[in-house]
Structure formats: structure tokens, C-alpha cells
């Protein structure tokens, strides 16, 4: 078997089986959208209190992580690290795939997805959602140009400026996503300027984790093993990003807990809110931080299986944190009359209830299906698999 | 040669006349259509003063009137639309209890309008905040941004709508201040229905209006005044 042409090693049957499975996920998502379109959002768990639900958890994870996977290419192009440069095309492909998945979920969850042309032609300059229409489509274009400069030899001289453009654009994109929540003036959970930087650092950690899962899968598929030095560098970097995002989350909650007006909210999110407190501590802190950090940094661990397990746990922790942040943040009653006990028929003063339903779950998973299909096809038809030979050659230069 | 010129002249005359006759009705219709939107004037600022001392616990007349006027079901499940609701509030430190109606506060600086990606949420020149049902894509960002939880999302297909009050599944809606009535010089349904005259509606900009005189003479507050959105709805007796 020729080790230098990994495509020949892709096991055809399993490949098409997996592709079909991805397609099935997308089909189920489309069927869910059809149900939501014909019967209305009443068939989801969302309501007038929890207006953004599980689809937004999936969409925001995919969009944040789409920016995060580009760490690898940024370190390669902007900071000139050859080991990362060899992986930059794969990072670019993953970024486009995840962005497509996330945006599709976001778009199909709209009350009127058929009016997407209205969103494209009526831009309100004060709306961060409208800015994001520009930021997200620009991201596709920027990454596509970047991939072109990397894969077309004649364009190679432009690879570095294109990489720099993507580097700047991904900061803007994740800032734009964080700002969606920062600009909510009246909600206790949101409306703080720490969110965009927090989202950026979280994107670093989650992006590394997803990149690692994909890279490990490709290497296992091709019976290749990752260079130990590269693995060591990448896992340490991932560990640092996990700690950095934990720091931001800690500061966010500490600041809230310091303000008397926010104490009740913190008590809800961190101690009493069901299932939010448990998801935060068990899902995010233990599964998403403590265990991965142990697996990455414990001297007896840190081998490739441990790093893969750590990456999967980081992704699970990300979902737990986003669920707590997005849904828990809306479940806590809006403070319309500070200093008063309130009650009404519209859940004023009451914890809002939310039970995710199957259709919205399928819609969210469909976004992952789209990202998977784009990645799987991309790897199959174009030269996206990291070439260690290129890496060693570049390292020797 | 002269003959040809004369023919050409009469042809041009006839053509111009025919064109004028063809365009005239359209122009007149255009003026009629334009005339209808002249209602909203920036000289007016519609608002309400709600006297909480007159609003009774257990009384739901304003809510019922709103539902009837706007074709809402009146159901209060988590996915049902509520444009106006009664809130019971109790001061935690003093124990004083009040009942009051809460609806869109028609802010001067409405966060819902700022965040709307498609300009579907908009403020009329006379201060009434509305949703253009043809432009709303149902993203619900305005519901996240509203400090008063004034907006509802239409979760189910609608039947038996009031022709004056268009609504649509998959779009966001809220109190319109009964704009269709106000434009005819009538009171909003809630203000008209209140048995205790607790809801005073009028032009805040007109110094001689009853609401402007009362706002000048009695203490009233805006809810979440700290946000400096300058709502058009004020509350007395809080």
C-alpha cells in the first residue's frame, strides 16, 4: 500500500456508509423543519419565555468552533509554525463545513425561513444580526480564498496575507457572535462586554478539540499515527486554551456574584436551577475541564487515546456550557420590577420551563450532519489530509 | 414637407394626450395611497398614563378587550400570544401590593428596533412601535432584547383574524397601541374598556392634552427608567 496517497486507503464501503448516515441526519433535520414550518414552533420546546432553544445551542457551538478550528491555520500562516502549516487546509475545510452547518440550523429555525431573501436585502445597520450576515458570508469567502492560496501553487505567495486576513476575520466573527448577547441590555445573564473575548477564547479550546477529533479519525482511518512531537505540542496548546476559557467563565460568574442585584441569578445558575446547576458543574466543570486537563497534563497520561478522549470531553463540556448559558440565561425571570415580587399569566417572576423536543434536537444534529458531509467529501475529493512529509520538509527549511 | 411636419405634430399631440389619460388614474391612486400614510406625525407622541391605584386585582377587562380587538385567543399557555397582561407586584421590603397592566411600552429608544436585522421592528413618527409582518423573519432577537417581555411569537397557524390587525405564524407581535383605532381618532381598546378609567391615553407632546397635564401634575414613573429608553407608557402610584 502506498503510504503517500492516503485516499487509496479510504475504505470505500464504510466511507459511503458513513456518508449515507450523515445524509440521513440531514434528511431527518429537513423533515423536522418541514414539521416546524407546517405546524409552527409549537411542536418545539421553545415558547414565549425560552425563545432560543436547542437549535441555537448547536448553531452557536458550530459557529464558534468554525472560527476556533482555524487556530491551526493561524498558527501556521501568521506565526509561521510548519507543523501547523501542514494542517492548515484541513482546518480551513473544517471551518467552512462547521460554519455551513451552524448557519443552516440558525436559518432553518427562523419563524419564516422562506424570507431569508428579506434578511439579505434589508440590512438594519444597528443590528448585530445584520452585521453577522456580512461577517458570516465574508468568512466563507475569506477561508475559500485562503484555501485557494494554499492549494494552488501559483497563488502560494498570497497564502500569508490571506492567512492574516482570515486571522483578523475570525476575531471579528466570534466577536460578532458574542456581541449578540452582550447587546441585550436588560437580561441578567447577558449584557456584559466580557462575552466576546470569552467566546473567542472558548472558540480556541473547542476548535482545537474538534480539530483533534477529526485529525485522529483521519489518521486512524489511514492507519497512520500522529507524530509524537506534533501531538505533544497540540495537546498542550489545547490544555492552555481550556484553562483560559475556564478563567473567563470564572470571572464572568464572579463579577455577577459580587453584585447584589445579580446574586439571585447566580444562585439559580450555579446552585438551584434544574438542570442548569448540574449541567454547569458536572457537564462543564468536571467533564469539560477537570477530566480533559487531567488527561492532557497528567504525566502518566497524555497519549493519543487520552488526548482524543479529552477532546471529546471538551466538546461535551461545550454543549453543557452553551445549554446553561443560552437556555438557563432565559429561564431565569427577567427583572422588570427590581425589588418587587411579581406574578402574572406570562411567567413574570417565575422560572421558565423548557423541554427540548425531538424535531429541534434533530434540526441541531442535522447541522453536525452537514458539517460532517462537507468534511468527508472535501477530504475525499481534494488534498486536505495533513501530509507529514510536507511538514518535515518545511521543518527542515 | 410641411404636410409631414403637421402630421407629426398632430401624432405627437395625440400620443401625449393618450399617455396623460393612461397615467392620470394611476397618479390619482398614488396620491390616495400616499394620503393614507400621512397619519403619523412626529409632532405627536402617543402615550399612556396608568393609575395603579385605580387598577384592581382580579380585574382583567383590559386584557379581554385587547384579545377581542386584536383577534387573540385569550389562552395563556407558554406558546400563546399575550399583548397585554396583568402583573401582581409586591414590594419585598414594605409588603405593599399593586396590580397593573403591562404591555409594549413604546419606547423612544426601543431595543427591539435596534436589534431587528431586517427593520421589521420599527417606530412610527408618532412613537408607536410596530412589527412589519411582511418583513419579520421570526428570529426572535427582539424578544430577547425587550426589557419588558412585551412581545410574543406566533407559534401556531392562525384562524379567524381581525382584518384590521394582520398577524402571521412564525412572526413576532406585540401591542400596537391599537394603531388602527388611534388612526381613526378612537381610544385603544384597553383604555376604553377599563371600568376604573385607570388607563389614560393621549398625546404626550400636546401640552394641553389631559395626559400631558396629568403627567406634569402627579408623580409617575417609567418602568426600568434606569435603562433610559424613555417609554411612552408611565405608571402613577407606584
CATH architecture of the largest domain in chain B: 2-Layer Sandwich
Largest sheet of chain A: none
Q: What's the shape of chain B?
A: elongated
Instruction: Provide the helix percentage of chain A.
Output: over 70%
The count of domains of chain A is 1
Terminal residue distance of chain B: 90 Å
Number of strands of chain A: 1
Q: How would you name the CATH homologous superfamily of chain A?
A: Formate dehydrogenase/DMSO reductase domain
Order of helices and strands of chain A: HHHHHHHHHHHHHEHH
Largest interface: A-B, 49 and 54 residues
Overall pLDDT confidence of chain A:
90
Unreliable residue runs of chain A: 389-397
CATH class of the largest domain in chain B: Alpha Beta
Strands of the widest sheet of chain B, in order across it, are: 8-1-10-9
Q: Report the count of strand segments of chain B.
A: 10
Contiguous uncertain segments of 5+ residues of chain B: none
**pLDDT average of chain B, as an integer?**
92
CATH architecture classification of chain A: Up-down Bundle
Structural class of chain B: alpha+beta
CATH top level label of chain A: Mainly Alpha
Short description:
Chain A is mainly alpha-helical and 397 residues long.
Notes on the structure:
- The complex is a heterodimer of chains A (397) and B (238).
- Helix content of chain A is 71%, strand content 1%.
- Chain A contains 15 helices and 1 strand, in the order H-H-H-H-H-H-H-H-H-H-H-H-H-E-H-H.
- In chain A, helix 9 packs antiparallel against helix 10.
- The model of chain A is unreliable at 389-397 (pLDDT under 50).
- Chain A is an all-alpha fold.
- Chain A is globular and about 65 Å long.
- Chain A has one domain (11-335, 343-396): Formate dehydrogenase/DMSO reductase fold, CATH 1.20.1630.10.
- Chain B is α+β, with helices and mostly antiparallel strands and 238 residues long.
- Chain B has 2 domains: 2-37; 40-236, Alpha-Beta Plaits (2-Layer Sandwich), CATH 3.30.70.
- In chain B, 30% of the residues lie in helices and 18% in strands.
- Chain B has helices at 2-36, 61-70, 111-115, 141-145, 179-182, 189-193, 210-217, and strands spanning 46-51, 84-91, 97-103, 121-123, 129-131, 152-153, 172-173, 199-203, 220-221, 233-236.
- A 4-stranded mixed sheet of chain B has the order 8-1-10-9. A two-stranded antiparallel sheet of chain B has the order 2-3.
- The longest helix of chain B is centred in the N-terminal third of the chain and has 35 residues, at 2-36.
- The interface between A and B is large, with 49 and 54 residues.
- Strand 1 (340-344) of chain A pairs antiparallel with strand 2 of chain B, so a sheet runs across the interface.
Amino acid at each position: 500500500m502506498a503510504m503517500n496517497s492516503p485516499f487509496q486507503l479510504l475504505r470505500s464501503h464504510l466511507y459511503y456508509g458513513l456518508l449515507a448516515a450523515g445524509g440521513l441526519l440531514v434528511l431527518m433535520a429537513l423533515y423536522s423543519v418541514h414539521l416546524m414550518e407546517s405546524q409552527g414552533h409549537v411542536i418545539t420546546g421553545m415558547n414565549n419565555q425560552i425563545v432560543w432553544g436547542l437549535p441555537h445551542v448547536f448553531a452557536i457551538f458550530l459557529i464558534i468552533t468554525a472560527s476556533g478550528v482555524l487556530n491551526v491555520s493561524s498558527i501556521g500562516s501568521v506565526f509561521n509554525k510548519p507543523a501547523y502549516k501542514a494542517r492548515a487546509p484541513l482546518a480551513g475545510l473544517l471551518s467552512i463545513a462547521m460554519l455551513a452547518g451552524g448557519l443552516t440550523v440558525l436559518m432553518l429555525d427562523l419563524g419564516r425561513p422562506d424570507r431569508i431573501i428579506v434578511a439579505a436585502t434589508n440590512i438594519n445597520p444597528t443590528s448585530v444580526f445584520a452585521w453577522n450576515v456580512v461577517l458570516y458570508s465574508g468568512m466563507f469567502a475569506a477561508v475559500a480564498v485562503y484555501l485557494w492560496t494554499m492549494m494552488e501553487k501559483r497563488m502560494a505567495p498570497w497564502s500569508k496575507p490571506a492567512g492574516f486576513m482570515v486571522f483578523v476575520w475570525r476575531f471579528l466573527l466570534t466577536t460578532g457572535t458574542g456581541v449578540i448577547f452582550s447587546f441585550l441590555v436588560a437580561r441578567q445573564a447577558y449584557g456584559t462586554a466580557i462575552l466576546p473575548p470569552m467566546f473567542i477564547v472558548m472558540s480556541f479550546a473547542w476548535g482545537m478539540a474538534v480539530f483533534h477529533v477529526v485529525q485522529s479519525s483521519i489518521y486512524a482511518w489511514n492507519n497512520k499515527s500522529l507524530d509524537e512531537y506534533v501531538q505533544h505540542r497540540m495537546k498542550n496548546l489545547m490544555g492552555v486554551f481550556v484553562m483560559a476559557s475556564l478563567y473567563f467563565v470564572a470571572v464572568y460568574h464572579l463579577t455577577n456574584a459580587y453584585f447584589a442585584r445579580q446574586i439571585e441569578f447566580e444562585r439559580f445558575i450555579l446552585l438551584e436551577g434544574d438542570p442548569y446547576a448540574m449541567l454547569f458543574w458536572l457537564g462543564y466543570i468536571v467533564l469539560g475541564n477537570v477530566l480533559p486537563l487531567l488527561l492532557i497534563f497528567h504525566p502518566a497520561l497524555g497519549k493519543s487515546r487520552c488526548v482524543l478522549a479529552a477532546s471529546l470531553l471538551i466538546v461535551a463540556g461545550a454543549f453543557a456550557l452553551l445549554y446553561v448559558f443560552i437556555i438557563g440565561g432565559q429561564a431565569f425571570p427577567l427583572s422588570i420590577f427590581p425589588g418587587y415580587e411579581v406574578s402574572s399569566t406570562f411567567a413574570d417572576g417565575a422560572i421558565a420551563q423548557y423541554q427540548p423536543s425531538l424535531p429541534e434536537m434533530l434540526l441541531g444534529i442535522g447541522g453536525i450532519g452537514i458539517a460532517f458531509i462537507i468534511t468527508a467529501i472535501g477530504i475525499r475529493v481534494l488534498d486536505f489530509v495533513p501530509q507529514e512529509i510536507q511538514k518535515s520538509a518545511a521543518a527542515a527549511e | 414637407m410641411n404636410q409631414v411636419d403637421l402630421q407629426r405634430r398632430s401624432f405627437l399631440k395625440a400620443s401625449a394626450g393618450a399617455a396623460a389619460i393612461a397615467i392620470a388614474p394611476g397618479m390619482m391612486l398614488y396620491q390616495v395611497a400616499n394620503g393614507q400614510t400621512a397619519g403619523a406625525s412626529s409632532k405627536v407622541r402617543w402615550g399612556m398614563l396608568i393609575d395603579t391605584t385605580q387598577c384592581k386585582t382580579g380585574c382583567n377587562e383590559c386584557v379581554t378587550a385587547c384579545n377581542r380587538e386584536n383577534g387573540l385567543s385569550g389562552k395563556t399557555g407558554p406558546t400563546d400570544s399575550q399583548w397585554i397582561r396583568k402583573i401582581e407586584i409586591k414590594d419585598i421590603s414594605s409588603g405593599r401590593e399593586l396590580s397593573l397592566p403591562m404591555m409594549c411600552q413604546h419606547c423612544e429608544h426601543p431595543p427591539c428596533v435596534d436589534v431587528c436585522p431586517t427593520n421589521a421592528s420599527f417606530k412610527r413618527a408618532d412613537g408607536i412601535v410596530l412589527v412589519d409582518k411582511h418583513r419579520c423573519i421570526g428570529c426572535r432577537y427582539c424578544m430577547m432584547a425587550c426589557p419588558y417581555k412585551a412581545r410574543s411569537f406566533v407559534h401556531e397557524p392562525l384562524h379567524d383574524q381581525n382584518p384590521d390587525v394582520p398577524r402571521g405564524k412564525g412572526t413576532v407581535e406585540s401591542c400596537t397601541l391599537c394603531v388602527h383605532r388611534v388612526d381613526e381618532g378612537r381610544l385603544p381598546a384597553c383604555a376604553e374598556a377599563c371600568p376604573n378609567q385607570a388607563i389614560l391615553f393621549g398625546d404626550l407632546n400636546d401640552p394641553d392634552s389631559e395626559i400631558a397635564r396629568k403627567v406634569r401634575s402627579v408623580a409617575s414613573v417609567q418602568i426600568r427608567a434606569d435603562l433610559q429608553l424613555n417609554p411612552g407608557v408611565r405608571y402613577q402610584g407606584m
